[in-house]
Specification:
Elements (H helix, E strand, L loop, with lengths): L6 E4 L5 E4 L5 H7 L4 H8 L4 H24 L1 E8 L6 E3 L8 E10 L4 E2 L5 E6 H7 L3 E5 L8 E6 L3 E3 L10 E8 L1
Antiparallel strand pairs: 1-2, 3-11, 4-10, 5-6, 5-7, 5-11, 8-9, 9-10
Protein name: Lin0174 protein
Organism: Listeria innocua serovar 6a (strain ATCC BAA-680 / CLIP 11262)
Length: 178
């Protein structure tokens, strides 16, 4: 076997260049030979256009995800005083951050939701996990009347309580899972 030696010399510009002596030229060529199979495999590697397309797809998917999570999923929209037996459920896969409960005043004498004096409550995913089926007292902002809603909450459900029929001047207007 021939020992391959690399040599160097200065060119006319004074720069040092490396070279292989002529006697070793065939041995050096043999070191860099590539089979047809290796060429085919290399040619099947990712192209710049293919890589760019994958990167753009990933970027658009990330943008869509960010746009979607901020909107949340509306589970309920209407007016419900959340008495005993009234509940809303959702898949745990929808819960990323928490839930928002939106309440407003309610005219119980006429069974009519009132479109003013809205009150929003956010419960984080961690709080829902901690409470998991326990009762939650949600005071309504009208301190004069001491009104409140009592709800059972978890990561997949909000359920009402009979006490809420006595506090019927407020209704749940929207439940959003985020």
């Amino acid at each position: 076997m021939t020992k391959i030696v690399k040599m160097s010399e200065k060119n006319e510009h004074g720069t040092l260049e490396q070279f292989y002596p002529e006697t070793h030229a065939e041995a050096v060529k043999g070191l860099v030979s590539v089979t047809e199979e290796e060429k085919t495999t290399w040619n099947e590697k990712e192209t710049t256009a293919g890589a760019e397309q994958k990167a753009n797809t990933a970027l658009n998917s990330a943008k869509e995800y960010v746009d979607t999570i901020g909107k949340g999923t509306v589970i309920f929209k209407g007016a419900n005083i959340m008495g005993a037996g009234q509940k809303y459920t959702w898949s745990s896969s929808k819960l990323k951050f928490g839930i928002t409960l939106l309440f407003s005043r309610y005219d119980s004498a006429n069974n009519t939701p009132l479109d003013y004096y809205y009150h929003s409550v956010f419960l984080s995913k961690a709080q829902l996990a901690e409470l998991a089926g326990k009762g939650l007292l949600v005071p309504m902002p009208s301190a004069i009347y001491g009104e409140r809603k009592y709800l059972y909450v978890s990561e997949t459900e909000v359920a009402g309580h009979n006490d809420n029929t006595n506090n019927a001047s407020w209704a749940l207007r929207q439940l959003t899972v985020m």
